[in-house]
Amino acid sequence: MTEDIVHEATYPYPPEEVWRAITEPAALNAWLMQTDFREAAVGHRFEFRDKPRKAVGWDGVTRCEVLEVVPPRRFVFRFGDGSGGFTPTTVSWDLERTPSGGTHVRFRHSGFGGLKGWLMRQGMNQGWARMVARAIPFVIERRRATGAFPLRDEVKANARAPRA
User: Fold this and answer.
1) What CA–CA distances, in Å, run from 132 to 90, 136, 150, 159?
2) Which residues pair with 64 in a beta bridge?
3) How far apart are CA 92 and CA 36, in angstroms?
4) What three-state secondary structure class fits 103?
5) Structural domain tally of the chain?
6) Among positive and negative, which fits the CA dihedral 8, 29, 24, 63?
7) 80: which residues sit within 8 A by CB, 6+ positions away?
8) Where do runs of H (alpha helix) occur along the chain?
9) Contact between 106 and 94 (Cβ < 8 Å)
């Protein structure tokens, strides 16, 4: 087994707002990938879609299934179904209210196996770090300011922009 991807952050937003950012379809489309995700319900199957990565044998589709839902504290889903020779992995989000009313987030992507798993982890670690540190807070701030989640291109540009 290859080491898990783990990222933690503390946001000034209450867990209910962070929960929406990781479980609402429009938010996931904005900060993660295009998805047909509809609800945070155990057993719900959905797909993420992105441009294929032929160099590693990925067709651009990741089939997922929700495994655990404890609103607004824990959200877990299987990432992948074993197609393309990739071992299915698990993505989990644990949200804990801070004394100031914010949220401490612990993100874990686990279960990487074999050479493809190692390659997958190498390719995904930095992206997950940007999403946890920058994309999710940006999505929450935009929703607070406008009442709507931003477009994916806006989130990507923000996440990659140099920090002031």
Assistant:
1) 16, 6, 16, 10
2) 46, 79
3) 19
4) strand
5) 1
6) negative
7) 62, 63, 64, 86, 87, 88, 89
8) 15-23, 25-31, 114-130, 136-146, 152-160
9) yes
Q: Is the per-residue pLDDT at 10 higher than 90?
A: yes
Q: What is the pLDDT of residues 43-86, one digit of tens each?
A: 999 999 999 888 777 888 999 999 999 999 999 999 998 887 77
Q: Which domain holds residue 125?
A: 5-160
Q: Which residue in 38, 21, 86 sits closest to 60, CA to CA?
A: 86
pLDDT in tens, 135-146: 999 999 999 999
pTM over 0.85: yes
CATH number at residue 28: 3.30.530.20
Distance of CA 129 to the CA centre of its chain: 10
Q: How far is CA 111 from the centre of its chain?
A: 16
Written as one letter, the residue type at 103 is T
The pLDDT tens digits for 84-104 are: 777 899 999 999 999 999 999
Find the helix packing angle between 15-23 and 136-146, rounded to 10°.
100
Comparing C-alpha atoms, which of 147, 144, 143 is closest to residue 31? Answer: 143
